[in-house]
Amino acid sequence: MRSIAIAAAALLLAAATAPAGAQTDTRDQFFLKADLGAGLPSMPNLSDELGLQGDESIGGGYSFAIALGRTLAEHAWAFELHFGVSFLPEFSYVNEYEDFTADLTHYSFALVAKKNLLPESDVFRPWIGAGAGWGVTNLISGSGKTQGVELLGLAQLEIAMRENLSFLLEASYCYGLAEDAFENPFLENIAGEDAVLRTDGEPLEDRYAAFELRVGILVWLPPPEEF
Q: For 114-130, how does the pLDDT look when each residue is reduced to its tens digit (9 = 90+)?
Protein backbone atom coordinates (compact mmCIF):
# COMPACT_ATOMS: atom_id res chain seq x y z
CA MET A 1 0.00 0.00 0.00
CA ARG A 2 2.84 2.39 0.83
CA SER A 3 4.50 1.74 -2.55
CA ILE A 4 1.22 2.50 -4.37
CA ALA A 5 0.86 5.79 -2.50
CA ILE A 6 4.48 6.76 -3.24
CA ALA A 7 4.10 5.95 -6.95
CA ALA A 8 0.85 7.91 -7.18
CA ALA A 9 2.43 10.90 -5.43
CA ALA A 10 5.40 10.83 -7.79
CA LEU A 11 3.16 10.79 -10.87
CA LEU A 12 1.01 13.60 -9.51
CA LEU A 13 4.04 15.71 -8.70
CA ALA A 14 5.59 15.17 -12.12
CA ALA A 15 2.38 16.05 -13.95
CA ALA A 16 1.45 18.97 -11.70
CA THR A 17 4.84 20.63 -12.22
CA ALA A 18 4.66 20.26 -16.00
CA PRO A 19 4.13 23.50 -17.92
CA ALA A 20 0.53 24.69 -17.82
CA GLY A 21 0.39 24.65 -21.58
CA ALA A 22 1.18 20.93 -21.70
CA GLN A 23 -2.46 20.04 -22.29
CA THR A 24 -3.56 18.72 -25.63
CA ASP A 25 -5.80 20.83 -27.87
CA THR A 26 -8.91 18.83 -27.06
CA ARG A 27 -10.44 19.03 -23.57
CA ASP A 28 -10.84 15.27 -23.45
CA GLN A 29 -7.76 13.68 -21.94
CA PHE A 30 -6.47 11.35 -19.26
CA PHE A 31 -6.28 12.39 -15.63
CA LEU A 32 -4.88 11.07 -12.38
CA LYS A 33 -6.42 11.90 -9.03
CA ALA A 34 -5.59 11.14 -5.41
CA ASP A 35 -7.54 12.07 -2.29
CA LEU A 36 -7.43 11.47 1.44
CA GLY A 37 -10.06 11.78 4.14
CA ALA A 38 -12.24 9.95 6.63
CA GLY A 39 -14.98 7.37 6.45
CA LEU A 40 -17.82 6.04 8.55
CA PRO A 41 -18.32 2.30 7.96
CA SER A 42 -21.37 0.15 8.59
CA MET A 43 -21.13 -3.58 9.36
CA PRO A 44 -24.27 -4.32 11.40
CA ASN A 45 -23.59 -7.98 12.22
CA LEU A 46 -20.07 -7.24 13.42
CA SER A 47 -21.38 -4.30 15.45
CA ASP A 48 -24.04 -6.52 17.06
CA GLU A 49 -21.40 -9.09 17.98
CA LEU A 50 -19.15 -6.41 19.47
CA GLY A 51 -22.14 -5.20 21.46
CA LEU A 52 -22.47 -8.66 23.00
CA GLN A 53 -18.77 -8.56 23.79
CA GLY A 54 -19.08 -5.21 25.59
CA ASP A 55 -18.16 -2.84 22.71
CA GLU A 56 -20.59 -0.56 20.89
CA SER A 57 -19.59 -0.85 17.24
CA ILE A 58 -16.74 -0.35 14.79
CA GLY A 59 -15.59 3.26 14.59
CA GLY A 60 -14.76 5.64 11.79
CA GLY A 61 -11.35 5.60 10.14
CA TYR A 62 -9.14 7.00 7.40
CA SER A 63 -9.65 6.64 3.67
CA PHE A 64 -7.25 6.97 0.74
CA ALA A 65 -8.15 6.66 -2.95
CA ILE A 66 -6.46 6.99 -6.32
CA ALA A 67 -7.97 6.83 -9.80
CA LEU A 68 -6.90 6.95 -13.42
CA GLY A 69 -9.52 8.16 -15.88
CA ARG A 70 -10.41 9.91 -19.10
CA THR A 71 -13.04 12.48 -20.09
CA LEU A 72 -15.38 12.10 -23.06
CA ALA A 73 -17.71 14.33 -25.10
CA GLU A 74 -15.83 17.57 -24.36
CA HIS A 75 -15.65 17.07 -20.63
CA ALA A 76 -19.32 16.13 -20.26
CA TRP A 77 -18.57 12.56 -19.16
CA ALA A 78 -15.67 10.67 -17.64
CA PHE A 79 -14.73 7.12 -16.79
CA GLU A 80 -12.21 6.17 -14.15
CA LEU A 81 -10.56 3.11 -12.63
CA HIS A 82 -10.82 3.57 -8.88
CA PHE A 83 -8.78 2.01 -6.08
CA GLY A 84 -9.48 2.84 -2.46
CA VAL A 85 -8.40 1.64 0.96
CA SER A 86 -9.85 2.39 4.40
CA PHE A 87 -8.07 1.86 7.70
CA LEU A 88 -10.38 1.43 10.71
CA PRO A 89 -9.55 1.52 14.44
CA GLU A 90 -8.30 -1.67 16.04
CA PHE A 91 -10.53 -3.46 18.51
CA SER A 92 -10.53 -6.68 20.52
CA TYR A 93 -12.71 -9.58 19.39
CA VAL A 94 -13.22 -11.90 22.35
CA ASN A 95 -15.80 -14.60 22.96
CA GLU A 96 -15.87 -18.28 23.93
CA TYR A 97 -14.44 -19.27 20.53
CA GLU A 98 -12.19 -16.39 19.48
CA ASP A 99 -9.65 -14.07 21.07
CA PHE A 100 -7.74 -11.70 18.79
CA THR A 101 -7.13 -8.04 18.06
CA ALA A 102 -8.87 -7.01 14.85
CA ASP A 103 -6.92 -4.95 12.31
CA LEU A 104 -9.85 -3.98 10.09
CA THR A 105 -9.09 -2.72 6.59
CA HIS A 106 -11.17 -2.48 3.43
CA TYR A 107 -9.98 -2.43 -0.20
CA SER A 108 -12.14 -1.50 -3.16
CA PHE A 109 -11.60 -1.72 -6.92
CA ALA A 110 -14.22 -0.21 -9.21
CA LEU A 111 -15.01 1.19 -12.65
CA VAL A 112 -16.91 4.47 -12.31
CA ALA A 113 -18.82 6.57 -14.86
CA LYS A 114 -19.26 10.29 -14.05
CA LYS A 115 -21.44 13.06 -15.43
CA ASN A 116 -20.28 16.70 -15.39
CA LEU A 117 -23.22 18.90 -14.35
CA LEU A 118 -21.54 22.07 -15.69
CA PRO A 119 -19.48 21.01 -18.71
CA GLU A 120 -19.30 24.61 -19.95
CA SER A 121 -17.54 25.81 -16.79
CA ASP A 122 -13.75 26.16 -16.81
CA VAL A 123 -13.40 26.57 -13.03
CA PHE A 124 -16.19 24.87 -11.05
CA ARG A 125 -17.09 21.38 -12.24
CA PRO A 126 -19.57 19.38 -10.15
CA TRP A 127 -19.68 15.66 -10.99
CA ILE A 128 -21.97 12.81 -10.01
CA GLY A 129 -21.12 9.22 -10.73
CA ALA A 130 -21.78 5.56 -10.09
CA GLY A 131 -19.97 2.33 -10.64
CA ALA A 132 -19.41 -1.23 -9.56
CA GLY A 133 -16.43 -3.30 -8.55
CA TRP A 134 -14.96 -5.70 -6.03
CA GLY A 135 -14.45 -5.14 -2.32
CA VAL A 136 -12.28 -7.00 0.19
CA THR A 137 -12.60 -6.54 3.95
CA ASN A 138 -9.90 -7.95 6.24
CA LEU A 139 -10.89 -8.42 9.87
CA ILE A 140 -7.29 -9.38 10.60
CA SER A 141 -4.32 -8.60 8.39
CA GLY A 142 -4.02 -11.62 6.06
CA SER A 143 -6.90 -13.48 7.69
CA GLY A 144 -10.64 -13.42 8.38
CA LYS A 145 -11.48 -11.98 4.97
CA THR A 146 -14.81 -11.21 3.26
CA GLN A 147 -15.15 -10.20 -0.36
CA GLY A 148 -17.77 -9.56 -3.00
CA VAL A 149 -19.33 -7.21 -5.54
CA GLU A 150 -19.85 -3.60 -4.41
CA LEU A 151 -21.72 -0.62 -5.78
CA LEU A 152 -20.09 2.80 -5.57
CA GLY A 153 -21.70 6.23 -5.85
CA LEU A 154 -19.93 9.59 -5.67
CA ALA A 155 -20.44 13.33 -5.77
CA GLN A 156 -17.40 15.43 -6.57
CA LEU A 157 -16.62 19.13 -6.83
CA GLU A 158 -13.60 19.94 -8.97
CA ILE A 159 -12.13 23.44 -8.75
CA ALA A 160 -9.56 24.24 -11.43
CA MET A 161 -6.40 25.80 -9.98
CA ARG A 162 -4.46 25.97 -13.24
CA GLU A 163 -4.76 24.36 -16.66
CA ASN A 164 -3.48 20.98 -15.57
CA LEU A 165 -4.30 20.94 -11.84
CA SER A 166 -7.58 20.91 -9.89
CA PHE A 167 -8.60 20.74 -6.24
CA LEU A 168 -11.16 18.07 -5.33
CA LEU A 169 -13.82 17.66 -2.67
CA GLU A 170 -15.38 14.20 -2.95
CA ALA A 171 -18.10 12.30 -1.10
CA SER A 172 -18.65 8.62 -1.84
CA TYR A 173 -20.78 5.72 -0.65
CA CYS A 174 -20.02 2.05 -1.23
CA TYR A 175 -22.32 -0.87 -0.50
CA GLY A 176 -21.66 -4.61 -0.65
CA LEU A 177 -24.39 -6.51 -2.46
CA ALA A 178 -24.26 -9.68 -0.35
CA GLU A 179 -23.19 -10.88 3.07
CA ASP A 180 -20.10 -13.07 3.25
CA ALA A 181 -18.43 -14.97 6.09
CA PHE A 182 -15.03 -13.92 7.42
CA GLU A 183 -13.38 -17.01 5.99
CA ASN A 184 -9.95 -18.54 5.46
CA PRO A 185 -8.31 -17.64 8.77
CA PHE A 186 -4.62 -18.44 8.92
CA LEU A 187 -3.75 -17.17 12.40
CA GLU A 188 -3.35 -19.79 15.11
CA ASN A 189 -5.42 -17.88 17.67
CA ILE A 190 -8.61 -18.29 15.64
CA ALA A 191 -10.53 -21.35 16.77
CA GLY A 192 -12.89 -21.78 13.80
CA GLU A 193 -11.65 -24.14 11.10
CA ASP A 194 -13.30 -22.27 8.25
CA ALA A 195 -14.52 -18.90 9.59
CA VAL A 196 -14.42 -16.45 12.48
CA LEU A 197 -17.17 -17.45 14.95
CA ARG A 198 -19.76 -15.36 16.78
CA THR A 199 -20.71 -15.68 20.44
CA ASP A 200 -23.35 -18.29 19.49
CA GLY A 201 -20.75 -20.41 17.67
CA GLU A 202 -22.02 -19.60 14.17
CA PRO A 203 -19.81 -18.06 11.45
CA LEU A 204 -19.69 -14.27 11.44
CA GLU A 205 -21.19 -13.00 8.17
CA ASP A 206 -21.49 -9.37 7.14
CA ARG A 207 -21.40 -6.89 4.28
CA TYR A 208 -19.37 -3.67 4.15
CA ALA A 209 -20.89 -0.27 3.54
CA ALA A 210 -19.34 3.15 4.17
CA PHE A 211 -19.79 6.87 3.63
CA GLU A 212 -16.49 8.66 2.96
CA LEU A 213 -15.50 12.30 2.58
CA ARG A 214 -12.13 13.15 1.05
CA VAL A 215 -10.13 16.06 -0.34
CA GLY A 216 -7.40 15.80 -2.93
CA ILE A 217 -6.02 16.89 -6.27
CA LEU A 218 -6.59 15.96 -9.91
CA VAL A 219 -3.87 16.31 -12.52
CA TRP A 220 -4.57 16.39 -16.25
CA LEU A 221 -1.89 14.23 -17.83
CA PRO A 222 0.12 15.60 -20.76
CA PRO A 223 1.18 13.25 -23.56
CA PRO A 224 4.02 10.94 -22.43
CA GLU A 225 6.61 12.76 -24.56
CA GLU A 226 5.91 16.01 -22.68
CA PHE A 227 6.78 14.63 -19.22
A: 999 998 888 999 999 99
